[in-house]
Amino acid sequence: MKPPVGGRPERVSLNVTDARLRRGARDIPLRPKDVAILQLLIAHQGRLVTKEALLAAAWPDVFVSDAVLKVAINRLRTALGDDARTPRLIETRHRRGYCLVGKISLVDAPALEAPEAAAVPRLPEARAIVGREAELAQLEEWFAHAAGGSRQLVFVTGEAGLGKTALVDLLLESPNVRGVRVGRGQCVEQHGAGEAYLPILDALGHLCRGLGGAAIKRRLARHAPSWLAQMPGLLRPDDAVNLRRRTGNATRERMLRELVETLDVLAREHPLVLVVEDLHWSDPSTLDALGALARRRDRARLFVLATYRPEETAAA
Questions:
Q1: What is the pLDDT of residues 122-151, one digit of tens each?
Q2: Distance between CA atoms of 278 and 155, rounded to whole angstroms?
Q3: How far is CA 265 from the centre of its chain?
Q4: pLDDT digits over 197-208, tens only?
Q5: pLDDT of the residue at 1
């Protein structure tokens, strides 16, 4: 956290609904698991929250090591401008857990359980992240190929609760991947046709709201205006209206062409990771888009990582 200016500390608040940290005049997007951790710390301000409680709040369905929690706490400290050596907000309680020693306000927060229940919850049943070192090493090897210019499309498969998302999180938190641009989208179970390209739009929005997001939005405006027109939250109202007028008759073929061209441009500048979770619930257009990306032969530092449940696809 920055030193006080004019004798008053910087105001900090967490918007749980939007997964964003407000620090002074800055809006900083957070990962969902980091939001869960910070929300629990805020609920018990000034009190110890055990490592077990924080792990259960952020990873309720899998067993992960304390190292993963430490990585998440370090991300929060970076977002908060805090320092572990001289903490103003998050203080480490050696071998026990963490304590929020500063003031962070909550915005749009759902009610939590009573402090006694939330601070020391029951541990979830240990599941299959233990012993997955080989899978993690393989993902890191494939990412290294992508970072070298050989695009990769990789699937992480398994039944519900097996730890697919936890494995993806560990990859993104590994030293060789940390700091790389990541767009993350989630497929949701929909009835009927569903919204086309929903997880990819989600991932592009995540990229535009992250570090370097302004430059990515400029690339979309130039190379993929029909995609940017579908994300009005990233535009001023007048710009959104004008862009929709220009791209209102965009065909499916044009949208696919714009997407692959834009991701190739972004992946030539820096390594780019595109995560699509729960692909078994995907709409057909998203599958077409992933197929188009996989068929490209141009070199690009693009790593597409998708998770899905094979039993769900077999039933479809």
A1: 333 333 455 678 888 899 999 999 999 999
A2: 11
A3: 21
A4: 889 998 998 888
A5: 42
Q: Which amino acid is at 20?
A: R
Q: Which fold has domain 12-119?
A: Arc Repressor Mutant, subunit A (1.10.10)
Contact yes or no for 291/304 (Cβ under 8 A): no
From CA 145, how far away is CA 158, in angstroms rounded? 24
Per-residue pLDDT of 208-253, as tens digits, reads 887 788 889 999 989 999 888 888 778 787 777 788 887 777 788 9
Cα–chain center distance at 267: 18
Contact 28, 15 (CB under 8 A): no
How far apart are alpha carbons 211 and 233 in whole angstroms? 17
CB 187 within 8 A of CB 277: yes
- Look at residue 71 and give its three-state secondary structure: helix
pLDDT of residue 289: 93
Instruction: State phi, psi for 106 to the nearest 5 degrees.
Output: -105, 140
- What are 298's two structure tokens? 């141009």
Nearest-CA neighbor of 311 among 135, 164, 158? 158
**Can you tell me whether residue 227 is helix, strand or coil?**
helix
Question: Where are the domains positioned within the chain?
Answer: 12-119, 133-214+258-315
User: 133-214+258-315 sits in which CATH class?
Assistant: alpha beta
Long-range CB contacts (< 8 A, 24+ apart) of 214-219? Answer: 216/181, 216/266, 219/262, 219/265, 219/266
Question: In terms of C-beta density within 10 A (0-12 exposed, 13-18 middle, 19 or more buried), how is residue 124 classed?
Answer: middle
Inter-residue contact 281 to 190 (CB < 8 Å): yes
List the one residue out of 133, 8, 19 whose CA is nearest residue 79.
Answer: 19
| Euclidean distance between CA atoms 84 and 77, whole angstroms | 8
Residue 225 contacts residue 246 (beta carbons within 8 Å): yes
Average pLDDT, the chain: 82
